[in-house]
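Quick one, T. Sequence first:
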Amino acid sequence: MSLIDYGTDCDYAELLAKMQSFTQSRQPDTEDEFWVLSHRPVFTQGLNGQPQHVLDPGDIPVVRTDRGGQVTYHGPGQLVVYTLVDLKRAGVGVRAWVTALEQVVIDYLTEFGVRAERLPGAPGVYVNGAKIAALGLKVRQGRCYHGLSLNLDVDLAPFARINPCGMANLPVTDLRHCADLTRNEMPDYRQAGSAIVLGLQKILLEQSPMA
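Structure tokens:
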């Protein structure tokens, strides 16, 4: 299992094409990969996304993608972890993987004294009812891609231009505000991404038939 750092200011369409190509061409013994990065500002609209949830995109592009879910925002100050994992080989179901993604974020936020939780029927991670992490996956023949986004220190204004994840008036927050951290105290996307990926790798190793 490899962690690959794609850096910041990543183009969404370019990374989407890379994920699709990787998943299409991977073989039964291809090593799983975790990509950590931040995107330049973009709204992404899921497979079942309804156009009415994009309220006022302004100068931020809207990109149709192939993950599940509705519309969300990616931008600077946000960690994105793409999980290119052969779930079938790992013996992990899709629902269990979603739960794992949520749990590693919840555990990570605990390190900063932030109490986060799941909400029934609304995938993602929430702090006092405000969304701090979004999830979205695509699975082909047991192999998944896409993953999660965690708001670290984000300009939250773009979220007001959409109904985040199709939920009108859903508040959105980030780690800096929840933990009351200065920018000098904030982890960057690399630090946060490494911690998240380590947690996911541990879960996969525990699920492995060889464990």
